[in-house]
Every structure is written in structure tokens, then in C-alpha cells.
């Protein structure tokens, strides 16, 4: 499960090479799909709910990229739930106010049953977030453990507002308050940002998105450097049973192999589309950290190794947004993100998106030819003229 990579390897090399079987003559170059639910006694894994060699390959790759030990789950939300289920009761969580809606729904659901209290914060505002965190910190159960002093849950860039949080400053401030810190790194991927290096205790991913990259598999993963946290996560997986299917884990590993080239192309496309959209007279606002007028641009430049492939733009109201999206022939109107194909949606059509501007269109930019994408968007926006 570990992900020790030679120090000389850069991330793109790790993505291609970690988690392969030992180089024995005649052995497969790739991991196999291990379908067996039980294993001969005496080895490291006894039963398929506790471990699986194909999961281990994915865990080695993503663990190496994030710089910790990874634990694979059946979906991103399963990984998120497992982390939150390790908290003592009642837990106390300060979360990015525009964090992934599923994360906020999970917190609301558990809070309703009295098992935790939570508040949303504007994580682009470091001092306001830490002030809110302070009112939530301390007073945990005496037995301690992960999150006993409270938990700060970050995303950066956030979904769908693309706000940038200062992970290092927030982690340092939260730790001073005795809190632990989780970062959902789905948008950035470990190629652009490694939150454990910035002080986070745990990183979670919806590996459904960029890591797998082809919109054909659900998978989640959590990574930490703290052995007791890793053990607790493995226990949550065994006890709650949110285990990945072996074929899904294999598809996710295969996706990780091409992460660097996919992300490079998608990111280049996103930067170009953001620039062109910003100059379009029907577009009121473009949210992309790579644009110099984005409020988090300088922070993103310092904190990230690229600005990613997620962006959002605003047109004049929900009807206009729906009309533009309805006109597109190349970008696909569908939720989710991080695949090779460009996906687009009016984000506020979902519940729990009250803070999202009604005319905000979120776009997960794919790896198509950028001029084809622009022609499609331009034609779509043309309906507003
Ligand atoms: C999609 C997503 C999740 C949830 O992951 P699933 O694989 O759909 O369960 C969590 N966080 C972010 C940022 C996401 O985009």
C-alpha cells in the first residue's frame, strides 16, 4: 500500500510506473484484475473486504503521487464518509462553504442525528476561516484521536466557485488550534498540488474524476502520512464495506498512467478558453485561477503547479445559461468532471447550491481540439445576441 518512489522520480514518471508488479521475467507488466474474494492463509490479505492486490496497485500510485499511504474506496464520497466517520462524537467540522455538495449533504445528514456540528466558511479568507475555526476548536473527548480537537475541511480550488484557499496558512492556523486538516484534492490532482506537503493531515479524492479520467468508473481514495489515521481508514473500509470492485480499481490505475498528458492538454485548453470567454461580450464573469484578475491568482501561482482544467463562467441568469448549454453540440451537458470529454452544466440546477450564482456555467474542459471547443461555445453564446 505504501508509495515509496525513488526520490529522483518526478510526478509524471510516478504516475506511469508506481504500482506495477515486480519485474520478474515472464510476469505481467501491468497489475492483474484480482477477482478472488478470499486468499490462501498466511499471506498479507485473508479476505477480499480487507485488501486486494489490484487496490494495492492503485494505492501505490496515488499514495506515491500524494506522498503518503493511500486507502482506496468504492467512490469519492465513500472516502469522504470514511474520514468523517473516524471523528469522535460529537464531531466539530468547519468546511469550505462551497465544498462539494455531497460532502455538505453528508455533514448535514450526520449533524441531524446529533453526531456532529458544522459550519461553512469562506476559505479564500484565511483569517475569517480561522476565526470561525477557533469558535469550533478544542474541548474534544479526552481520548483524543483524529479530529478530537475539531476538523477543518478544505477544497482548493473550490467547486464550483473556483476560489483558492491558502492551504499552508490554514493548516498551520488550524493545527495551532489543535484541529486536524483534510483537503479534497479532486480538482487539482497531485500533479498540480500536494496538500500533505502543505501541512494537511489527510487528502481525499474522487478518483472518479481526473485520476481515472474517462468518465467510466467510480472510485475514491484517501491518503495520509499518519499511520493511526491510515489504520482507522482501513478499519472504516473493512467495517463499513465500501470496497472498490477489482475491475474498477484496475481501470483507475490505467487512468492514472495517462494523468499527466491528459491534464496538461485539458489545462492548456482551459486556459485558452478562459481567456477567450473573458473577452466575450455576453459573458459577465469568468472564474479560472489562471486569469490574472482572479482574486486567488497569485496564491494559486505560488501554491499550485498549474491552474487546472476546471472553470466557470456566468451569463445573465439561469434561462440564458440553459439556452447556451442547450445549443452546444460538442461540450456535453452532464454533471461530473475530469474526463477526456468536455462536460458542462448550470451548477445551480442542483439542490444545496444556494450560494452558486444562478447563471453560473461550470465547465470541465477536456482534451478535444481547443478551436473546436471554442467554435461550439461561440455558437452557443450566439443565441444570446
Ligand atoms: C465528485 C466529487 C466528489 C464525490 O466523488 P464520487 O466519486 O462521485 O463519490 C467529492 N469531491 C469532489 C470535489 C467531487 O468533484
What is the spatial order of strands in the main beta sheet? 1-7-6-5-4-2-3
User: How does the overall form come out from the CA principal axes?
Assistant: globular
- Counting DSSP H or I runs of 4 or more residues, the number of helices is 13
Low-confidence regions: none
Mean pLDDT: 95
Radius of gyration: 21 Å
Indicate the percent of residues in helices: 25-40%
Number of strands: 12
- N- and C-termini, Cα separation: 55 Å
Strand composition percent: 5-15%
In this entry the ligands are: pyridoxal-5'-phosphate
What summary fits the major beta sheet? 7 strands, mixed
What does this structure look like?
With 385 residues, this protein is an alpha/beta fold. Helix content is 37%, strand content 15%. It has 13 helices and 12 strands. The chain has helices spanning 11-17, 53-66, 76-85, 101-112, 126-136, 167-176, 189-192, 227-240, 246-257, 259-278, 297-303, 318-327, 370-382, and strands spanning 69-73, 91-96, 116-121, 151-155, 180-184, 202-206, 220-224, 285-287, 310-314, 332-333, 343-346, 360-364. The strands form 2 sheets. The protein has a 7-stranded mixed β-sheet, with helices on both faces. A 5-stranded mixed β-sheet has the order 8-9-12-11-10, with helices on one face. Helix 1 (11-17) packs antiparallel against helix 2 (53-66), helix 3 packs parallel to helix 4 (101-112) and helix 5 runs parallel beside helix 6. It is globular. The model has no long low-confidence stretch (mean pLDDT 95). Bound molecules: pyridoxal-5'-phosphate. The site of pyridoxal-5'-phosphate has 16 residues, from helix 3.
Amino acid at each position: 500500500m505504501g508509495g515509496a518512489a525513488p526520490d529522483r522520480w518526478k510526478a509524471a514518471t510516478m504516475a506511469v510506473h508506481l504500482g506495477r508488479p515486480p519485474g520478474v521475467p515472464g510476469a505481467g507488466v501491468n497489475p492483474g484484475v484480482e477477482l478472488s474474494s478470499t486468499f490462501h492463509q498466511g499471506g498479507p490479505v485473508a479476505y477480499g473486504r480487507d485488501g486486494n492486490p489490484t487496490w494495492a496497485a492503485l494505492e501505490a500510485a496515488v499514495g506515491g503521487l500524494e506522498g503518503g499511504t493511500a486507502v482506496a474506496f468504492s467512490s469519492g464520497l465513500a472516502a469522504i464518509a470514511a474520514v468523517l466517520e473516524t471523528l469522535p462524537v460529537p464531531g466539530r467540522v468547519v468546511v469550505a462553504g462551497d465544498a462539494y455538495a455531497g460532502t455538505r449533504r453528508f455533514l448535514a445528514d450526520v449533524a441531524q442525528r446529533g453526531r456532529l456540528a458544522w459550519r461553512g466558511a469562506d476559505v479564500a479568507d484565511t483569517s475569517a476561516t480561522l476565526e470561525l475555526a477557533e469558535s469550533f476548536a478544542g474541548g474534544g473527548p479526552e481520548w483524543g484521536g483524529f479530529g478530537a480537537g475539531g476538523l477543518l475541511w478544505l477544497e482548493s480550488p473550490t467547486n464550483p466557485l473556483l476560489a483558492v484557499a491558502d492551504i499552508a496558512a490554514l493548516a498551520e492556523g488550524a493545527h495551532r488550534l489543535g484541529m486536524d486538516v483534510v483537503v479534497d484534492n479532486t480538482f487539482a490532482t497531485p500533479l498540480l498540488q500536494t496538500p500533505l506537503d502543505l501541512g494537511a493531515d489527510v487528502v481525499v479524492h474522487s478518483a472518479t474524476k481526473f485520476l481515472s479520467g474517462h468518465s467510466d468508473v467510480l472510485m475514491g481514495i484517501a491518503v495520509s502520512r499518519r499511520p493511526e489515521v491510515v489504520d482507522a481508514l482501513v478499519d472504516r473500509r473493512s467495517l463499513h464495506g465500501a470496497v472498490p470492485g477489482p475491475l474498477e480499481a484496475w481501470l483507475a490505475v490505467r487512468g492514472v498512467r495517462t494523468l499527466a498528458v491528459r491534464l496538461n492538454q485539458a489545462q492548456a485548453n482551459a486556459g485558452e478558453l478562459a481567456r477567450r470567454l473573458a473577452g466575450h461580450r455576453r459573458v459577465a464573469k469568468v472564474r479560472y485561477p489562471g486569469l490574472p484578475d482572479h482574486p486567488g491568482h497569485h496564491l494559486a501561482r505560488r501554491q499550485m503547479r498549474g491552474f487546472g482544467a476546471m472553470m466557470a463562467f456566468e451569463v445573465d441568469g439561469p434561462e440564458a445559461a440553459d439556452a447556451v448549454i442547450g445549443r452546444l453540440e460538442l461540450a456535453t451537458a452532464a454533471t461530473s468532471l475530469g474526463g477526456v470529454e468536455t462536460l458542462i452544466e448550470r451548477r445551480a440546477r442542483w439542490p444545496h447550491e444556494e450560494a452558486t450564482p444562478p447563471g453560473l456555467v461550470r465547465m470541465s474542459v477536456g482534451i478535444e481540439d481547443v478551436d473546436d471547443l471554442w467554435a461550439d461555445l461561440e455558437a452557443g453564446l450566439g443565441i444570446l445576441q
